[in-house]
Every structure is written in C-alpha cells, then in structure tokens.
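Entry 12.
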Amino acid sequence: MALKVPSVIIPGADAAHATSAARYLQECLDGSVYHDVHASEQSPNDVRQWILQFLGANAPVTAA
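Predicted 3D structure (tokens):
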C-alpha cells in the first residue's frame, strides 16, 4: 500500500489470476488504472491498446 507508482490492472479469470485479486490490487495501489472487462471479453488487440495507452500516459520523458 506504500507503493506510489503508475499501475495498470487487467483482470484474469482462472485459479492463478483471480478477478478478486485484481480488485484487491486496485484497492491497494492508489491511482491504478483498472480495466473492468471480464477475461472472456478481452481481445489481444484490446489488451495491447490498453497497455500502449497506459505506457504513453505514464512513460518517463527523457531529454534527447
């Protein structure tokens, strides 16, 4: 709960990636981005776009 880093949470739906664990993580990580989309409705393209949008919004800017 002390972590203050950008985070994106995309829930799964199996024994190793419980949706309840994703919700708990969302509660613990202040300012996290949670995609409330059931795993059966997630497509590889959707997930890729969510990650790219998250990185675009949260990637550190470095001087050239």
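Annotation: The CA atoms of residues 19 and 28 lie 14 Å apart. The mean pLDDT is 86.
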